[in-house]
Amino acid sequence: MSCILHIETSTKVCSVAVTEDGAVLFEKVDKNGPSHAVQLGVFIDEAISYIDNHGIPFDAVAVSQGPGSYTGLRIGVSMAKGICYARDLKLLAVSTLELLCVPVLLYHEDLPEDALLCPMIDARRMEVYAALYDRSLRSVRAIRADIVDETTYREFLDERPVYFFGDGAEKCRTKILHPNAHFLTDIVPLACNMGPLAEKALAVARYEDVAYFEPFYLKEFVASQPKKLL
Description:
Layout: E1 3-8, E2 14-20, E3 23-30, H1 36-53, E4 60-64, H2 70-87, E5 90-94, H3 96-107, E6 116-122, E7 127-133, E8 139-147, H4 154-157, E9 162-165, E10 181-183, H5 195-203, H6 218-224
Helix pairs in contact: 1-2
């Protein structure tokens, strides 16, 4: 039996969930943000009260590690660390881009077997932060800053269908016109979908150092990229 508190603050959406053995027991979501500084503490208090009132053994805290908003991630990770220190819990980190893939894999059963998933996080102008995964969530191309034009992802699109989603995907519709390009709407990172990824990390004891863990801030990621990507 495993009970995990999940915290997701990488984008404008603020969400908290509690899962036990993968089943969602509690969830709070605010999509009207960014309002993390106001809502997150309230959501977490309610979630912990739920856990305590139901006498559920508390095993770990999972937090979305980005890439994402500097402010949002800083608030989420700080909260997660505080809970881990106070309750002597394990800290688990979940990739925001992998998290975006979870609802696609769960609820879009008509995806072709050879499909690639391309979650996108919005950045300035025509820039996005993206990665490519197959349907087993195996990384096909690592996270990168992409300036999107007609030729971006062409090498993958020429071979098989690619599904684009996340808050960076909508602005790419007018640029990526390849017949193998498909766009999914209303896909946002949510704490309720962190369960499968957090359970996997817990099963293999992939814990983060509570004292030294830092999230994947977009601004730091940009600074590390080759000049041609900026």
